[in-house]
Amino acid sequence: MQTNQHSIADGFRGLMAAIVSRALSDLGNGEISVRAGNNIKDDAMAWILGPDCEDYCLELNTDYTTLRKKAAGLYREFLAREDARFHVSPSRKPRKRPGRPSS
Fold first, then answer.
1. What stretches of 1-85 adopt beta strand conformation (E)?
2. Which terminus of the chain has fewer Cβ atoms in its 10 Å neighbourhood, N or C?
């Protein structure tokens, strides 16, 4: 009976490790993934900052502070890429459309 309980506990630990790993993977993925109007990266970061992730790290003997710092770095990189993607340089002038008078 103890062997079965031990394998169940290992299964839960494996599942917790997979969930933590997936959250980091979602943050590190270069693609911008949107699901039902929510950004997966926002969801992953919110989960990492929540109590469940901290509990999982405790159970997995993983340093939560280090994990959170790594996740925050990945999230900052994502936000910087997003800002760059939508940023228009102040020196860049909009193109004139043909057939429209200049003001």
1. 34-35, 38-39
2. C
